[in-house]
């Protein structure tokens, strides 16, 4: 089928999005692995720890007790209670159990929120670099992505002033992801408060992707949910994936006003319905049980961040901001890229990522996927031996491009 014929078959909206770049990298790496390649994988955006025992046990017990049927769409009351209580305890938020929807991963909470809020032509402000899915999800809904550039010298940190300048009468929503994927930047508490006030005063929805909220290295985790007076226009998008090392379980949530959660439930009732029943029980164990694992994971990520940065610093020509959270570094490799391909250099980060994969056997995600043209993302939840070996391979590969 030619592309023209395909466009007649498929709806316009599917043509507006791309396959998630991180998923595409994973698929390409899997092909090489199947051919026997020994890859160092800095691509996957997930913790390397097993899911803690007490969480697995709760799911196993649920299955054994035949807790395997449909549940109500937004999740059983106990899981919603566990979410709002955890959030209230950690951040002083004030959500009731009808102000939360438990979703099949944080990505679905985001997808559905955009679907219920954004119409054709609505503008959504998105800071760059952005997590790959934000842009496509907005475009799928017909929204217009308004990219907001940040300064590398400022650790890619977004400010309230920059957001204020980007607001127009068509702005429907603002997306904020702090700590961020891919650069690990954290919005300051002052800016967060100002952005929340701005959104509140202008009646703009502020979508706070707090998937890495517990992986804030610098300080006590901060959530927009603490600003209880701003609830009407806030949507907190949460995920258990990174916090509890549960990426495969698909457990996320949205905390928002009743009008928003009622519409999220309505949409979910016509698609996935409830999240898997045993996953709801596992989530209760994660959220209500000991939070020691969260503290331990965070401490290990901080050490790995420092280890990774120290190794990268040994490669001349690479510069890298210091992530303040999440678990990625976002080094700048502009010294090794040449748009004309001079000296056999990659023309852009897509080519660089592909060559690192095929020639150096290191999996990375190219910066183009996150809206910048000089970076690659390296995910560091791996062993120190992997960091040693992966950075050595990157260094050797880059050495060949010098001169
Ligand atoms: C910024 C951000 N938001 C949301 C998600 C979605 O996480 P999940 O769907 O696994 O809950 C991810 C996953 O990588 C992410 O990086």
Overview of the molecule:
By secondary structure, this protein is α/β, with parallel strands linked by helices. Helices cover 42% and strands 13% of the residues. The protein is built from 14 helices and 12 strands. It has helices at 3-9, 12-15, 21-34, 53-64, 77-91, 106-117, 132-140, 160-166, 189-202, 258-269, 277-288, 292-312, 349-360, 384-401; strands at residues 40-41, 100-103, 123-128, 144-149, 171-177, 205-209, 234-239, 252-256, 328-329, 362-363, 365-366, 376-379. The strands form 3 sheets. A 7-stranded mixed sheet has the order 2-8-7-6-5-3-4, with helices on both faces. The radius of gyration is 21 Å and the shape is globular. The termini are far apart. The model has no long low-confidence stretch (mean pLDDT 95). Bound molecules: pyridoxal-5'-phosphate. Residues 45, 105-107, 131, 177, 181, 209, 211, 239, 241, 247, 252 line the site of pyridoxal-5'-phosphate. Pyridoxal-5'-phosphate (PLP) binds next to helix 6.
């Amino acid at each position: 089928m030619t592309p023209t014929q395909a466009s007649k078959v498929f709806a316009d909206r599917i043509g507006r999005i791309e396959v998630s770049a991180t998923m595409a990298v994973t698929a390409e790496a899997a092909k090489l692995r199947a051919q026997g390649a020994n890859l160092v994988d800095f691509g996957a955006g997930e913790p390397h720890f097993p899911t803690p025992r007490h969480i697995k046990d709760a799911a196993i017990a649920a299955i054994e007790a035949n807790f395997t049927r449909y549940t109500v769409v937004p999740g059983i009351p106990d899981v919603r209670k566990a979410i709002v209580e955890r959030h209230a305890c950690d951040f002083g938020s004030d959500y009731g159990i009808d102000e939360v929807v438990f979703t099949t991963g944080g990505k679905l909470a985001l997808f559905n929120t955009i679907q219920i809020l954004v119409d054709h032509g609505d503008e959504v402000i998105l800071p760059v670099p952005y997590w790959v899915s934000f842009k496509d999800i907005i475009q799928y809904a017909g929204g217009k992505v308004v990219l907001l550039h940040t300064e590398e010298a400022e650790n890619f940190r977004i400010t309230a002033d920059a957001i204020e300048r980007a607001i127009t009468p068509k702005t429907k929503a603002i997306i904020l992801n702090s700590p961020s994927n891919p650069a690990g930047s954290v919005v300051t508490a002052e800016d967060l408060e100002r952005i929340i006030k701005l959104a509140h005063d202008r009646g703009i929805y502020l979508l706070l992707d707090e998937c890495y909220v517990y992986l804030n290295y610098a300080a006590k985790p901060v959530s927009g949910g603490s600003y209880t007076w701003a609830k009407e226009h806030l949507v907190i998008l949460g995920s258990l994936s990174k916090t509890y090392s549960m990426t495969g379980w698909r457990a996320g949530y949205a905390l928002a006003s009743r009008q928003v959660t009622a519409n999220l439930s309505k949409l979910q009732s016509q698609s996935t319905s409830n999240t898997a029943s045993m996953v709801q029980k596992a989530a209760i164990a994660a959220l209500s049980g000991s939070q020691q694992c969260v503290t331990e994971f965070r401490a290990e990520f901080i050490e790995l961040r420092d280890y990774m940065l120290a190794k990268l610093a040994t490669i001349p020509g690479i510069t890298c901001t210091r992530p303040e959270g999440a678990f990625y570094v976002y080094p700048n490799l502009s010294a090794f890229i040449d748009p004309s391909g001079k000296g056999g250099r990659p023309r852009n980060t897509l080519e660089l990522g592909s060559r690192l994969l095929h020639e150096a056997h290191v999996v990375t995600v190219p910066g183009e996927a996150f809206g910048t043209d000089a970076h690659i993302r390296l995910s560091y939840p791996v062993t120190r031996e992997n960091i040693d070996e992966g950075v050595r391979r990157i260094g050797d590969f880059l050495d060949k491009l010098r001169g």
